[in-house]
Amino acid sequence: MSAELLASIPVGFVMETDYVTAEPWETLGETAEKMTRSDYGSALVVDAGRIVGILTSRDLVRAIAGRTHSSEARVRDWMTSNPRVVRPDTLAGEAALIMVEQDCHHLPVVDENCRPVGLIGMRAVVSETFERFSEATTVLGIKERTDSARTE
Fold first, then answer.
1. Among the four 91, 128, 133, 145, which has the fewest Cβ within 10 Å?
2. Structural domains present in the chain
């Protein structure tokens, strides 16, 4: 049942519309500061308003492990270029499959001109799925039956 619920939710309903952006020539330090202030694990890298990459906390860890200096290293050298993107009408289940296939936790959500409109994360997909599943089981009385069976 949860798979059916997940498949029916468009990304546009669960995406974050508040996200961090960076430009390719910014330093890792500048971008890491923005990510920290916003408490986000990734930044959408844009050039002339279009997505050209994504910089994630994993990328920052790789850069640190490579002994780069955050005030000198540039986003363009550590970002994932040309990331997979989804549209707001993409189903959340499809977005989740892309994230699993690509071994990533975030996907940029773009409009028809490849301009960012949001960010979808695996956590949002899972949380929304469980929330809807919980609501559905409560409506159907499944939760109450399960709870009463445990106490007997």
1. 145
2. 2-151 (3.10.580.10)
